[in-house]
């Protein structure tokens, strides 16, 4: 069978040899907290200010655009996750519906999305941590608080955080989920405190002019893409994370019910939180001031003469942002694991610890990669590159929904996308537009280079060694 037409059956995703099974320990509330934990993170703590610099108060519309597109994507993920309740997320769905070659590209893009976004969050967390230690009067050389491409030598706090998260994931999935739940509750409490205080300083005059850079993405005299849609392409980074929930399908006790609750519920809750926090921040602080702040939420509270609340919010960010990295690195390790189990990566990587029920080795590899990236790169560059991989994965999942509806309309789905021939195309068109017109040309080029490298690896290894190409070598 030609590599481009090789598709895995749904049954083959659900049955594996001894030592290749992940342990089912999660319930719907774990998934809901994982989703919120992954979505509500650096995006609301840091990218709100960056987005305001690109679109002014119109960044609120950017949040709406991202929310609509992400909701369409979440609905598509929910259908595919209940139709194919197997680990691997968009990679697995594509392998089943669209074929091995496209699945490899999607999996390779997911590697980019998860790994790079985890590093981005680590860098964002490091910024809050650095501000905290400076406030506390602790002297640390600046070159040890910023990455190589951000004016320093190495971002030590980001590296340490990546190592701690890796150890937690190795400890066990259920244990990691419980820690994530605690961190999410801390984070939500701090955001609620911010909203209550910020709305006390709300001023409608801060919303004028509402669209200083217009709607469409355009390049200004400094070579920066501005406008509502340009900001959407950047803050889209703040909206994904629910897709990591779908990677937990194999470790969920009742995937048919729990996955749809986790995916859709986390997206709905997180979108509401984002809009409320962004509205409060822009109402309390003029957008030009907000865009210059390294820690926008803490800046707003300090401006409102509430330094104690600013310290609490900053401390909550330090404590709770690791929940994002926990979930994202979890998703990355599972995508790596499933690709190895399918033979597209070395099968020796697809080993599960008998004691922990987790893929310990591949989790450690993921942690090392995240630590290296977070030690060197800048937040804005990382976020945009992660967006490219996410947009491509969302397009693939939406296309898989339509194709599976056409090929197997009778297949059991405990959740179905409402108006699929509207929702899925809207997801595809929206993500395609953000990719082509929202992302900088350099980001698009790097994404193509990344996938060019991936295709070379696929044809050199995966195309010949996959379980479908060499069934005698399969599990």
Automatic annotation (TrEMBL):
Keywords: Membrane, Transmembrane, Transmembrane helix, Transport. The chain crosses the membrane at residues 28-47, 59-78, 90-111, 150-171, 178-202, 228-249, 261-288, 308-331, 357-376, 382-406, 418-439, 445-463. It is found in: Membrane. It holds the Pfam family AA_permease_2. It comes from the Bacteria. One of its GO terms (cellular component) is membrane. It is a multi-pass membrane protein. This is APA family basic amino acid/polyamine antiporter. Gene3D superfamilies: Amino acid/polyamine transporter I (1.20.1740.10). InterPro entries: AA/rel_permease1. GO terms for molecular function: amino acid transmembrane transporter activity.
């Amino acid at each position: 069978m030609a590599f481009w037409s090789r598709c895995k059956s749904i049954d083959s995703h659900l049955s594996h040899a001894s030592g290749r099974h992940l342990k089912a320990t999660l319930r719907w509330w774990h998934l809901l907290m994982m989703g919120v934990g992954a979505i509500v993170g650096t995006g609301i703590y840091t990218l709100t200010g960056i987005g305001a610099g690109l679109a002014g108060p119109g960044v609120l519309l950017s949040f709406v655009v991202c929310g609509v597109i992400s909701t369409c994507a979440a609905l598509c993920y929910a259908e595919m996750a209940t139709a194919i309740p197997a680990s691997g997320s968009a990679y697995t769905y594509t392998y089943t519906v669209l074929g091995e070659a496209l699945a490899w590209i999607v999996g390779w893009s997911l590697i980019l999305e998860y790994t790079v976004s985890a590093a981005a969050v680590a860098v964002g967390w490091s910024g809050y941590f650095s501000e905290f230690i400076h406030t506390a009067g602790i002297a640390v050389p600046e070159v040890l608080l910023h990455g190589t491409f951000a004016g320093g030598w190495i971002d030590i706090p980001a590296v340490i955080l990546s190592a701690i998260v890796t150890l937690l994931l190795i400890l066990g999935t259920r244990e990691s989920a419980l820690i994530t739940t605690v961190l999410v509750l801390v984070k939500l409490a701090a955001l609620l405190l911010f909203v209550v205080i910020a709305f006390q300083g709300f001023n409608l005059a801060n919303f004028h002019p509402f669209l200083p850079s217009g709607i469409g993405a355009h390049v200004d005299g400094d070579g920066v893409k501005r406008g509502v849609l340009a900001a959407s392409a950047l803050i889209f980074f703040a909206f994904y994370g629910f897709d990591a929930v779908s990677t937990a399908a194999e470790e969920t006790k009742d995937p048919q019910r729990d996955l749809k609750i986790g995916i859709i519920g986390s997206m709905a809750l997180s979108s509401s939180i984002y809009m409320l926090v962004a509205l409060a921040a822009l109402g309390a602080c003029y957008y030009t001031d907000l865009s210059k702040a390294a820690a926008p939420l803490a800046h707003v509270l300090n401006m409102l003469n509430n330094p104690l609340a600013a310290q609490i919010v900053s401390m909550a960010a330090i404590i709770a942002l690791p929940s994002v990295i926990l979930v994202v690195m979890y998703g990355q390790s599972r995508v790596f694991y499933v690709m190895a189990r399918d033979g597209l990566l070395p099968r020796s990587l697809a080993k599960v610890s008998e004691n922990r029920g987790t893929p310990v080795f591949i989790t450690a590899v993921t942690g090392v990669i995240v630590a290296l990236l977070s030690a060197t790169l800048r937040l804005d560059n990382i976020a945009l590159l992660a967006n490219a991989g996410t947009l491509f994965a969302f397009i693939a999942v939406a296309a898989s929904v339509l194709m599976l509806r056409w090929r197997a309309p009778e297949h059991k789905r405990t959740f179905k996308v409402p108006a699929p021939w509207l929702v899925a195309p809207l997801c595809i068109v929206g993500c395609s537009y953000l990719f082509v017109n929202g992302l900088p040309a350099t980001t698009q080029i790097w994404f193509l280079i990344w996938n060019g490298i991936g295709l070379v690896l696929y044809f050199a290894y995966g195309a010949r060694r996959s379980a479908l190409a060499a069934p005698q070598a399969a599990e």
